[in-house]
Write a structure and sequence with these properties.
There is one protein chain. Strands 1-2-3-14-4-15-21-17-19 form a nine-stranded mixed beta sheet, with helices on both faces. Helix 3 packs across helix 12 and helix 7 packs across helix 12. The chain contains twelve helices and 23 strands. It is of the alpha/beta class. A hairpin with a 5-residue loop joins strand 12 and strand 13. It folds into two domains: about 290 residues, Aminopeptidase; about 140 residues, Aminopeptidase i, Domain 2, CATH 2.30.250.
């Protein structure tokens, strides 16, 4: 049989291949072995999601994992050498991991910074009340949410209570099999004509996000608020605290469901908290897997990003700067000089293109599921307000690195120019005179109680951070 002749490419086809840019779909480009590695990596990620639903829990788990890999608490009065591994725990709500590299510290460090807080419903300082024989918690939502999405779903209570005697009492209710769960009730459609006429941001108002916690009365009918009293009795018996102890507590309601595979082909993960634990977990794993790095690798798992990175555990404070100062001092160098030579991947998510809502995206500059980790040169709102705009030189450096390491990657903006926007921690790290670019996972249904990501994108993000820290 005669061999089939290969069709000769036209001049236009040759030029198109040489000159035009076409993002590579990771789903097509990945080998079966690469898919298997992605699936396996995401099994660990799903377990992390289920165990780390608050920033405090994420820090506890990360420290436990780090100790197993030879990390120890940072001591600014010690001398360190290449290969040493340390961590700095900032108040149990933010964490820095560091592996000392072979190059002198004054050549700069490689920073990966992700956040471990997510939108949620925080209990108010005086939350418990009774009305109509129902006991409820008052909440104050944390971060940017669509309030109506947080009704009629199962919720779990997480957090800590500091009793009057100073004892710290951890609380988790709603996660174990057999545990009760909680919920925010909603109005039945038969009586919701007025509610449904409101604009979406007011369908459920902030003060209506009240969590149902009980309805069984205390037996003594001489007391008032007997349902509330019965709830306080249960909490006192199990945890040893009284109502006044709510004043010195951090308690939050988070979705009670666990991370799940999504789709008949199991190519997606649906869960609470992908923003930004879907970047924090790959960053953590890359930090733990660092071998003998050229430059010192610093991985930051930070708090408070969802409310502007404020407070002493957010990156708008100076704890990262102070850590670098102390680390540099161990080598007799100035922290500011180390930072000015440093480079950073701000590990945060971007909005994945959703064809159901394609009108909010500019398709040539949107991020797509299964196209790999997304490099976001700038975020911000409209006229790039509130953003770090990475330099062409640094984006070019990252581009060469990802290509050389075989990482599937794409670029993306956070929606159309006038559609809205958002921010990351990038501008706070850049304020230290550090080269910074955002890089992370595209997410569907971002900030919802149940967000969705593609497994292949999660694994490519890990590969990117691992390559950056070599």
């Amino acid at each position: 049989m005669a061999e089939r002749k290969t069709k000769k490419k036209s001049e236009a086809e040759i030029l198109k291949e040489a000159l035009c840019y076409e993002p590579r779909n990771a789903g097509i480009a990945l080998s079966d072995e690469e898919w298997e590695r992605a699936d396996l990596f995401c099994e660990g990620y799903k377990k992390f999601l289920d165990l780390a639903k608050t920033e405090r829990e994420a820090v506890e788990i990360a420290i436990s994992m780090a100790r197993e890999k030879g990390f120890s608490a940072f001591d600014p009065d010690r001398t360190y050498k290449a290969g040493d591994r340390v961590f700095y725990n900032n108040r149990g709500k933010a964490l820095i991991l560091c592996t000392v590299g072979r190059q002198p510290i004054e050549q700069g460090v490689r920073i990966v910074a992700a956040h471990i807080d997510s939108p949620r419903l925080d209990l108010k300082p005086n939350p418990l009340y009774e009305e109509a024989q129902l006991a409820l918690f008052k909440t104050h939502y944390y971060g940017g949410i669509k309030k109506y999405q947080w009704t009629v779903i199962p919720l779990a209570l997480h957090g800590v209570v500091i009793r009057a005697d100073g004892e710290r009492v951890p609380v988790i209710i709603g996660e174990d099999e057999g545990d009760p769960v909680f919920t925010v009730t909603d109005l039945l459609p038969h009586l919701a004509n007025e509610q449904m006429s409101r604009k979406a941001s007011e369908i459920v108002k902030g003060e209506a996000l009240n969590v149902l916690v009980g309805g069984r009365m205390f037996r003594d009918d001489q007391a008032s608020e007997r349902v509330k009293l019965a709830i306080l009795k249960l909490l006192n018996e199990k945890y040893g605290f009284i109502e006044a102890d709510f004043l010195s507590a951090e308690l939050t309601m988070v979705p009670a469901f666990h991370a799940s595979d999504v789709g008949l082909d199991r190519s997606f993960i649906g869960a609470y908290g992908h923003d930004d634990r879907v970047c924090a977990y790959p960053a953590l794993m890359a930090a733990l897997d660092v071998g003998d790095p050229t430059y010192t690798v610093v991985t930051v798992l930070t708090d408070k990003e969802e409310i502007g990175s404020e407070g002493n555990t957010g990156l708008n404070s100076h704890y990262l700067e102070f850590f670098i100062d102390d680390l540099a001092a161990c080598f007799g160098k100035a922290g500011r000089r180390v930072l000015s030579k440093s480079k950073c991947m701000s590990a945060d998510v971007n909005a994945a293109f959703d064809p159901t809502y394609g009108e909010v995206h500019e398709r040539k500059n949107a991020a797509y599921c299964n196209y790999g980790v997304v490099v976001t040169k700038y975020t911000g709102a409209r006229g790039k307000s509130g953003t770090n705009d990475a330099s062409a030189e640094f984006v070019g450096e990252v581009r060469r690195l990802l290509d050389a390491e075989g990482v599937q990657w794409q670029t993306g903006e956070l929606g159309k120019v006038d559609e809205g926007g958002g921010g990351t921690v990038a501008m706070y790290v850049a304020a230290y005179n550090v080269d910074v670019v955002d890089i992370g996972v595209p997410v569907l249904s971002m900030h919802a109680p149940f967000e969705v990501v593609a497994k292949s994108d999660v694994y490519q993000t890990y590969k990117a951070f691992a390559a950056f820290g070599k």
